[in-house]
Design brief:
The protein is of the alpha+beta class and 170 residues long. It has 6 helices and 5 strands; from the N terminus they run H-H-H-E-E-E-H-E-E-H-H. It is 44% helix and 17% strand. The longest helix has 19 residues. It binds iron/sulfur cluster.
């Protein structure tokens, strides 16, 4: 089945909502995430969380990797809810992607630090927002140079922090 939107990695949608410069750098293969302790601890938490839940990891089209939990839900595990809008949109994109393929699921986001689980359902408004975001992502990726540094509090925790601010100071 032809998808209504281009297929993209879910993480790109996540970065689109966090910082368009981050999205651009990541998409161009400038990867520094392995330098980030936050990402490393995220992986450890992901591997050790909720060991008793019945789950299956599924890779769809070599692009979207999902935890399927108890059949009805797909799940994302996040350290905290600081980026909840971006996390929510990423999971909604997965629900959208599956729906386009004829599979309807609901989503769960486990926020580990807060020990909180949020249930996510895809609405028509969400679908429109996702379609708009995917177009926005395509526009960002067509830029010849990265979007401006955003000078936000989150920059200090970003894997690209040195890259962005050292480059700025030169
Ligand atoms: S350091 Fe800030 S401006 Fe640079 S990519 Fe990260 S969030 Fe964006």
């Amino acid at each position: 089945m032809e998808l209504k939107t281009a297929s993209i990695q879910g993480v790109k949608l996540n970065y689109y909502y966090i910082c368009k410069r981050k999205l651009w750098l990541f998409a161009k293969g400038i990867s520094m995430e392995h330098n980030s302790d936050r990402v490393l601890s995220g992986k450890v938490i992901h591997e050790n969380s909720y060991p008793r839940m019945k789950k299956r990891e599924v890779l769809i089209d070599g692009l979207v990797k999902l935890d399927i939990v108890d059949g009805d839900y797909i799940r994302e595990v996040k350290i905290s809810s600081k980026m909840s809008k971006a996390d929510r949109m990423q999971l909604l994109y997965y629900l959208y992607y599956l729906k386009e393929k004829g599979v309807e699921k609901k989503g769960l986001i486990n926020y580990v630090k807060e020990r909180r689980v949020e249930e996510i359902e895809l609405t028509e408004d969400d679908e429109l927002e996702i379609e708009k975001a995917v177009k926005g992502i395509e526009q960002v990726l067509q830029l010849k140079s990265p979007p401006e540094v955003i000078n936000a509090r989150i920059c200090k925790k970003c894997a690209y922090y040195l890259f962005c601010y050292v480059e700025e100071e030169d």
